[in-house]
Amino acid sequence: MKHATSHRRLIFSKNLIMMLVMLAVIILAVWAWFAGNPEAEAGGISVASKAPNEISLAECIKTYDSEGTLVKEGPGEFTSDLSFNGPYTLAKDCTGDGMNLIVPDFSVIKDKNEAKTTGKIVNLNGSCSNAVSQLESEREHELNPDKDAPEYQYIKHEFYLRSSNETFTLAPESILLSETEKNGTSLSVAPSEEKKSAYGNFNVDALVGAMRVAIIAQPANTINQQWENDPDDVTKMRVRTDAENAPTCTRGTEERQLMWVPRPDIYLDVYPDNENNWDAWTINTGITGSSTTENSNHKRISEITYKHEYYKNENSEISLVTDNGASTSTGSFNSVGAMPLGHDVTIGNMSDGNKALAQTMRKTSLRDDASTDSYYVYKITLKVWIEGTDSEARRAMDGGQFRLNMKFGL
After folding, report:
1. Is residue 97 pLDDT above 80, yes or no?
2. This model's pTM is above 0.70
3. What is the CA radius of gyration of the chain?
């Protein structure tokens, strides 16, 4: 009797150990999905004016005191274009409406195949943190040079725009391109080994399908710029940027002007009907807003890609939201099958009482032409991120590269 009991206990112990091992394997498999180290790289971001005599752009000049506190901010010299050169590396996605971006907790103990099918599973009862931009990361590193720069989740750039009209537009040719498309090759072409995903025969640069872009405007007034001779060109003057004479301005309230889904023409299909199929996913390209193409789960792809969903944290409650204000692409495909914005988007429609005031500013920095003219001036904040709710925001896109080119007109 004692021998039989011991035997049962031994069998029970072995089964328990096997169950624990299997549970550990499952958890580790799911954890590998969420805790991998995917990276995306932005090679560069450019903004330009289509009408330099009517619209011009200036870098945002900031000066700080010895403790790192911001004391002055204003526009530098206005010009026809600005470039923000990277590379910028995004190691983690985030979610939000453009004004507020967060990094929520993700569940790692739910069914692995549910995570595979729907993407990262957000824990609605969990906590979240505010997403960090590369500007904040760089500033933190400047203040603490002995420490590594903190990880950041989105790209942020600030600049000033002046316009002869109270409103202006983001032009139809504005586009977010993958590095592959920039080099003249379509994402639908079989990728090189360097660009091939481990999850299927598709290009990791298709990550652009998960990107989001937001433009936030802030009316500026009482702008003050001090000028000095340019030591590199005796025919010109330049804006002073030393601490004592750096540019200043006062500003109104920030308002989101654009929430853009720049590449709804791309969709990652993960074959949810086969739980063991993790290396034969496919990329659908050329999707239009009226497309009736269905994914492998028999859902119309255009109804998924042509909208912006995100999570928000309000009163310590996390919830999923569909943003109907998103301006998705509607234009024709270009030579490599990429879709530009396709239509003008008006910027500068501010709330009553938050309008930009006409400012008298130096029209040119040429020493022999000190004429002035009146402009409406805005501080523009540009944000770019990988939206975690999107199907393309996956480890499958590890190594994706992209560039953003934006043009402003009247």
Report:
1. yes
2. yes
3. 25
